[in-house]
Amino acid sequence: MTDSFTARLGAARTFAAQASARTLIDLAEVPTGAWRDLFERAAEPNAFYHPLWARAAAQHSKEAGSARALLAFDRFDRSRLIGLMLVVPAWWALGLPLPMLVSWHPYSRLTTPLIDRDRAEEAAAGLLDAAREAGVRALLLTDYSSRGAAAEAIQRALDARGLAARILRERERARLDATLDVETMLHEALGAKKLKELRRQRHRLSDEGPVTFDVATAPADVARALDDFLVLEASGWKGARGTALAESAGDTAFIREAATALAAEGLCSAVTLAASGKPVAAGIVLRHGGRAYFYKIAYDETMAKTSPGVQLTLELTKHLCADSTIADADSTANAYHPMIDKIWRARLPIATALVPLRPADPAIGAIEFLVNARERTRRDARKLFHAMQDRLHAIREKMR
Question: What pLDDT digit, counting tens, does each position of 193-220 carry?
């Protein structure tokens, strides 16, 4: 028996002995082996809840200071983790002093919890119990897959307690059904006229030189492709708004660490479209089980007339449909996205829901009112902020 194995075994035993009293803990305290095992057994995928991704996010994100792991355990084996949800206090997430935990999205737009497929309802019930033990009155589930296996397990656990989630917002975002014939799918989605126009633009792009599509999977290759992605993203509108990953040292460190670490596990790739060797569009793709995640895309906006972002998406679509291990892909985009919605015509329902933890709790109505009011204020402020940024950018461009 090796020293490392002995050490890991000892840590697992200590963790199991303390588990019943520690169901809300720091991410760093969750044994990696137990977390990885649950990730592999998840009833519904969520690539962003891989320990390597989540811990890198917790280390580098300015928003992760209070991130914790809400845990549930197999009642027959306290060393077996069967449920995990990443959360932050409502004060940290929303700026509201409410007795509530909010699901945390580490550099992602998906907070579907990891639920053991063999103990789904038990796992969901365990997460609800863990939240109650933490002393809160409710959970706010943001951006979770509202009609998947995890949501169904949570609903059954709530039904058993006489509770009901309150859906505050629900929308649909683009999803690729990768089991379809790709040529037929694209023809039905875009039509012959649009496909002809895209082919014309592709030929125009080739005027710069041969057009190539590359999928980097090895960590070193992903790291090099990330350099191209970061440059492209910073050169466009995200750079102008200050939201590109390269604008923050922490964000840059995060994506380099997380993407290369997952690439070493076969769970991350970087895709690049180049003309005459010059990158014109790039993206980051994650995977978990049979699902891929089109996490990020950037393109050379000076070449917008050739639609490099669309061209990259078409190549990626063909690549994913040709991969027999991929059943579908989550665009991770906003609902009604003007580009991806027209190409990926399947939909993934995403919701934000308030989950009470006690029957007939009089505090829930007030919590719901405050959360909704805060969301309206935040949405209006964000629109105003972006409008001002765009206006300032336009003024600077005129002054050049």
Answer: 999 999 999 999 998 789 999 999 999 9
Asked if 229 and 282 touch (Cβ cutoff 8 Å), the reply is: yes
Phi/psi of residue 81, nearest 5 degrees: -80, 130
Assign residue 375 a region (left: φ > 0; alpha: ψ between -120 and 50; beta: otherwise). alpha
The percentage of residues in the chain with a pLDDT greater than 90, rounded to a whole number, is 79
Q: How far is CA 314 from CA 8, 209, 262, 310, 342, in A?
A: 45, 19, 24, 6, 11
Q: What is the DSSP string of 236-273?
A: SHHHHHT-SGGG-HHHHHHHHHHHHHHHTTT-EEEEEE
Amino acid at 242: G
pLDDT tens for 244-265 read 999 999 999 999 999 999 999 9
Q: How far apart are CA 62 and CA 76, in angstroms?
A: 38
Query: Dihedrals φ, ψ of 124, to 5°?
Result: -65, -45
* pTM metric for this prediction: 0.88
- Single-letter amino acid code for the residue at 260: T
Is the distance from CB of 71 to CB of 30 less than 8 angstroms?
Answer: yes
Q: Per-domain residue ranges for the chain?
A: 15-172+349-388, 179-326
List the CATH code of the domain at 179-326. 3.40.630.30
Q: Give the pLDDT of residue 391.
A: 62
Q: What is the CATH number of domain 15-172+349-388?
A: 3.40.630
The enclosing H or E element of 221 equals: helix 219-235
Domains 15-172+349-388 and 179-326 share a fold: yes
SS3 50: coil
Give pLDDT, residue 73.
92
Residue 377: burial class (beta carbons within 10 Å; 0-12, 13-18, 19+): exposed
Indicate the SS3 state at residue 1.
coil
Whether the Cβ atoms of residue 312 and residue 271 lie closer than 8 Å to each other: yes
208, 278 contact by CB (below 8 A): yes
| 137: phi then psi, degrees, rounded to nearest 5 | -100, -20
Which of 301-306's residues contact partners 24+ apart within 8 Å by CB, and which partners? 301/235, 301/236, 301/237, 303/205, 303/275, 305/201, 305/204, 306/201, 306/202, 306/204, 306/205, 306/280
Q: What is the band of 350 on the pLDDT scale with cuts at 50, 70, 90?
A: very high
